[in-house]
Design brief:
The chain is an alpha+beta fold and 339 residues long. It is built from ten helices and 18 strands. The chain starts with a strand and ends with a strand. The relative contact order is 0.09.
């Protein structure tokens, strides 16, 4: 849940433009300076991010802490007295941010060649964080995997992506945070389940598609890119979706559904399960399906056989157990046509 204490999110200095912020993030990602001096030196006048060094101080554990000594609903050192507080973000240690700021294009040596020549690997990056120790390396690996990176080789110093990750990494460095998995309820759809769900969707050559609460596109990756809309609340995940080429909208799906007039031939979804939220998301998604269209939803196994959508003749697959990393939940896939 994101709490905003103004009608819209604004920087402390209203004159700080989006172009300036983009330039700032690019500078962060490409500079060789240590991260704290870098952020302090190039932060635009009056600009205060969620973990800006102007608004926060460094603890003995080398993490950022607000100058007001807590994540309060206002202040935090900002002269405006207002700040957007994102409850789904996890601050990162300075040593990790320093390593992230050193990201560079991954390249491999062309053999045989003399003098040595190297070729860049498409959508692959590498780090020079070996001197920072095992703990930083393990955290970097977790972060890269959380944004879709696959380790190259055994050293975990290089990672392959299916999109260009530089802007996303620059965003992480600039904010000092990544989305918290548990509070955000982000559990990527395993490919084994995603492939079954897409097969059940029976997507036609001209069907328009929607993935609500899309995360990084675990289901959308298997749908036609030019006809698929993604709705996702996380800014970082939206940047990943956009980098992959999807039509992505950053929004709370439940709120977005109230203001959109769009309807879709196919809706394929893996909604958040906590506190029974999947029931609300399922009902909302059903309302966005065109008459005669089709809905496919990954749901808790306890949903099987229940009359979830009155008037719909939903069918259910057998239960899948232990498929999702980080949780032991069992799921079924519900599917049916809108009457």
């Amino acid at each position: 849940m994101q709490l905003t204490f103004l009608s819209e999110e604004l920087p402390a200095n209203p004159s700080a433009s989006q172009d300036l912020e983009r330039d700032w993030m690019t500078h962060v990602a490409t500079s060789c300076l240590p991260i704290l001096p870098l952020l302090t030196s190039i932060s635009p006048s009056g600009w205060f991010g969620r973990t800006s060094p102007v608004s926060c101080h460094q603890t003995a554990e080398k993490t950022l802490e607000p100058s007001s000594e807590g994540w309060q609903n206002s202040g935090m050192g900002s002269p405006t007295g207002f700040l957007t507080l994102n409850m789904m973000e996890r601050p990162l240690p300075f040593a990790v941010l320093e390593a992230l700021a050193e990201v560079r294009q991954h390249s491999v040596r062309i053999e045989p060649s003399w003098p040595e020549r190297y070729s860049n690997v498409h959508n692959a990056i590498q780090f020079g964080y070996g001197s920072n120790g095992r703990i930083v390396g393990e955290e970097i690996t977790r972060i890269m995997q959380s944004i879709g990176g696959v380790p190259i080789g055994k050293t975990n110093s290089a990672f392959q992506f299916d999109y260009s990750p530089f802007e996303v990494i620059a965003d992480i460095v600039a904010s000092g945070c990544i989305p918290d998995q548990k509070s955000h309820q982000y559990y990527p759809t395993p490919s084994s389940i995603g492939e079954v769900a897409i097969e059940l969707a029976q997507i036609g050559a001209n069907d328009t598609c929607l993935e609500p609460s899309a995360g990084q596109g675990g289901l959308a990756n298997l749908m036609p890119k030019d006809r698929t809309r993604c709705i996702e609340i996380s800014e970082m995940h939206c940047k990943i979706l956009s980098a992959k080429g999807f039509d992505a909208t950053q929004a709370d799906f439940t709120l977005w559904s109230e203001r959109t007039a769009d309807r879709f031939d196919r809706v394929v979804m893996n909604p958040p399960f906590s506190e029974g939220r999947w029931q609300q998301h399922l009902a909302i998604a059903a309302g966005l399906v065109k008459n005669g269209g089709r809905l496919v939803a990954i749901l808790p196994a306890s949903a099987k056989g229940k009359d979830l959508l009155p008037g719909w003749a939903l069918e259910f697959t057998d239960a899948y157990a232990g498929e999702f990393v980080g949780t032991s939940v069992s799921v079924v896939i519900a599917h049916g046509n809108k009457p």
